[in-house]
Amino acid sequence: MAEALLELENIVAGYHNQPVLKGVSLDVAEGSVVMVIGPNGHGKTTLLRCVSGLVSLSSGGIRLAGTRIDGKRADRIVSDGVIHIPQSDLPFQDMSVIDNLMMGAYLTRARADIRRNIEEVFDLLPRLAERRGQTASTLSGGERRMLAIGRGLMAGGRILLVDEPSLGLAPIVIEQIYGILTDLKANGRTILLVEESAARATEIADRVHLLDDGRMIWSGMPADLLKRPEILETYLGG
Amino acid sequence: MSGWKRDLPIGLVVLAALIAAPAFGLPRFWITTVTVFFIWATVVSQWNLVFGVAGIFSLAQMAIFAIGGYTTAMMGLYLEWSLWLALPVSGLLAVVFGAVVGLACLRLTGAYVALLTLAIAYILFLLIVTDTDCVYYEGTVCRSLTEGWKGLGRYGDYGFRDLFGRDFHLGNYGLALAVLTLATLFSFAIVRSPMGLAFRALRDNPGYAVSRGVSRFKYQLLVFALSAFFTGLAGSVYAGVFSVIGPNVLQLGLLLFLLSMMVVGGVGRPWGPLIGAALLMLVDETLKEEAFAGYRNIGLGLILAAVVVLLPQGLAGGIDNLARRLARRGGGAPGE
Amino acid sequence: MDTAVQIVVSGLTLGAMYAVGTIGLSLVWGALRMLNMAHGVLIAIGGYFSYQAIDGWGLPMPVALLVAMLAGAAMGALIYFCAARFMFRNEAFENNIFIVTFGLAIALENGILKVFGGYPLAQPFSLDGGFRIGGVYVPWQNVLIVVVSVAVMVVMAQFLAKTRMGRAIRATAQNRDAALLMGVPIGAVFAQVLAIAGSLAALSGVLLSSITTLSPQVGFDPMLKAFIICVIAGLGNVIGALYAAFAMGLFEAAIQFFLGVRFALPLMLLIVIAALIWRPYGVFGKKQVTRL
User: Fold this and answer.
1) Residues in Cβ contact with A91 at an 8 Å cutoff, skipping those fewer than 6 apart
2) What percent of chain C lies above the pLDDT cut of 90?
3) How many C-beta atoms lie closer than 10 Å to residue C265's C-beta?
4) For helices B110-129 and B83-105, what crossing angle results, to 10°?
5) Where are the domains of chain C?
6) B205-234 core/surface letters (b: 16 or more CB in 10 A; e: else)
7) Is C94 in contact with B110 (Cβ distance < 8 A)?
């Protein structure tokens, strides 16, 4: 097993002194896709916000390639290579698609690199190339999600944190989004993925964790998940 | 409630000291200064209800004060009423004005409220200082309704000159103290009432409070109107004590001075306005000294800015925190 | 006909100055959710630095304008580093920063009073002479004001649209968290925005004082007007603010002509009150959904 790129060690965090995460540990190995599933309001988004520095920890630690990153400023964590693709409507609404992508490359200084990155993103997400001049708020839900992913890819980075990419999308669009994520995995990207349902776990994840009320209640291989009917019943809504 | 158990004795001691002070030979200059303190503390205590407790960032407080003062002056001058009669009328007119301002602000939040109320106060100021249309002539001298920059005078006083002769300033002192005492009792009662709790809920978590059926509309209007009453009374007392009222009460410098009292004392804390007003009056008297000539407003402005940055809870908040820390160190003092 | 020309000429001049002053205020609100009450004193600082540079140090006019803008930028940055930096994460920021900048404004205004005295001074940044359109005399100074303002607005528009810093400012204004997740150091962005707003306020102060006079309170009325314009446009809406600025300039020129100077500002303030009650989020503004 490869050395872990991202390590979460027993983290406790929350808002207004009320812990949402009550001691969560997690490893993400280089080049792997790790999925955290769990019901809404049980800390999945908070988990990602802790890693990217938007929420500070009350205890525990987060390491990227062996170096502590908790307590750092969010923009510094980004420049360390942690790219957080947030939920739903977070593209910059009043900016064009291309300006959104340029924002993704904020930390990239060389124009040639930016241009090459944009070409790569347009190859992966041709829909964005068609819409390049359009204002983000006029995009459809699926296109916005693609824009958010594209914007995240612009930054390069070492690990992608993806927050509920299927939230609120039609099944056919979810299919497309997961196609993209699978491509990314094939390219060797490291991804920490958060979802409400376990439906997609087997096709993409190397490892699955169940987060319930701020604690990890089960961890293992996606295949093992299928052998646990009681978990499937709870989290697949079966 | 434990709050009253602590605050009532402190309040009574302070009140007794203030009543006794003139008898113990407080110099005339200080009696006048403390009278001014009473008036400003009254205004700030009511402003604190609007801003600190109800969370409405209104800057119309001095406009309400001016309405009270000008009402008293005009009734004395044009209707030749006794100021004692004009006093409650001034309070009530201030309530009407406050309610109108409150209505205008209700759909707005934060900075928009500040802008709107500042605009209202400034309109009043501009209309008064540019008021030169003659309403009557005294000989050949043209008199306008509000007398513009000069302000209104010669409308009489609260009659303490006839009553006490040379010691008339003691009457002013007593009247201002009485109004402050009532205003302070009122503000304590509001803070400790179910309405005060509702406000705290609204301020700390607007969404939750509204979803639990706490009506922002009703309470905000109520607090605007009620606090305007004592503010109007304070304006009326001011007019009577100084025998002149002019647009200077609407100037930004004074608004800043009173805002500083509230902020330095501690926004939303019932004792804050009294502590802040007393301290700022002292600072102001010091800065008025020859040695600091011209630095008064520079000093006040910097103090205000520094307190908000460094001590956002104000002095009252700082004292509370200190007391709590001491109590904890004392190994769980009784009553905590 | 001459009346109309007269109103258009002075309306455009006023509108151009208001526009320059308002962009900064609007940018600051957009990026930081901060009403800068020191805006008025920044206007005065610009006017006085230009006065000092030309009459005191003998510098040529374009250099003096630059000096004034640099002074404004430095003051703006100072507001960030001395105050806003410690406060913007706090929930009560919107109210607290209002009070802090209010305090700084009074202190600075009285500082100017201390250094330059309270007598009105004549702004030396001005051109003599003029030309005629029909029966209306148009001073070159008005032309200068419009030209400088329009040039600055074009530069600002390009800066915001095309540069990396401009994009980061827009992104921060639209979504602070998302901008952080792109690696934008938002503290630095806030400092930049305040510096830019300071230099624009200083520039508008030079222009404003050139057709009136220079006094420590010179910036207060223009600040209120800038607020009015922002509110009508919807706070933070920069493009809307430009339209509103010119509309306001023409409107003010017309009121001054038909009703007299006395009612210009009170009427404008009444309009803003009516506008706020009618549309609390600005005439061109969008309602923002507040998260609970």
Assistant:
1) A100, A136, A139, A144, A147, A148, A151, C178
2) 41
3) 20
4) 140
5) 2-278
6) ebeebeeeebebeebbbbbbbbbbbbbbbb
7) yes
Q: How many helices (H) and strands (E) does chain A have?
A: 10, 10
Per CB-CB distance under 8 Å, the chain A contacts of C183 are: 75, 78-79, 106-107, 155
Sequence letter at residue B196? G
Rounded CA-CA distance B60/B81 in Å is 27
Interchain pair C185, A73: CB under 8 A = yes
DSSP sequence for A141-181 = HHHHHHHHHHHHHHT--SEEEEE-TTTT--HHHHHHHHHHH
- Judged against a pLDDT cut of 50, whether residue B334 lies above it is answered with no
| Binary contact (A54, C177; C-beta < 8 A) | yes
B114 touches chain C (CB under 8 A): yes
Query: Quick check: B297 and B284 in contact, CB under 8 A?
Result: no
Model pLDDT for residues C146-202, shown as the tens digit of each residue: 999 999 989 998 999 889 999 999 999 988 888 999 999 999 999 999 999 999 999
Tokens of C155: 């530069």
- Residue A32 sits in a domain whose CATH number is 3.40.50.300
Taking CB atoms and an 8 Å limit, are C182 and A84 in contact across chains?
Answer: no
Given this model, what pLDDT does residue C289 score? 36
Query: Which sequence spans correspond to the domains of chain B?
Result: 2-250, 258-336
| Residue A227 CB partners (closer than 8 Å, separation 6+) | none
Cα–Cα distance, C129 to C167 (Å, whole number): 42
Is C169 at the interface with chain A, CB within 8 A?
no
Provide the residue range defining the domain that includes A60: 1-81+197-238
Partner C contacted by B217 (CB < 8 A): no
Contact of C102 with chain B, judged by CB distance below 8 Å, is answered with: yes
**Cβ–Cβ contact C129 with A under 8 A:** no
Test B123 with C95 for CB contact under 8 angstroms. Answer: no
Interface ipTM above 0.95: no
- Looking at domain C2-278, does it have CATH number 1.10.8? no
* Count of Cβ atoms closer than 10 Å to residue C93 Cβ: 17
Q: Is residue A187 part of a domain?
A: no
- How many whole angstroms separate alpha carbon A165 and alpha carbon A173? 10
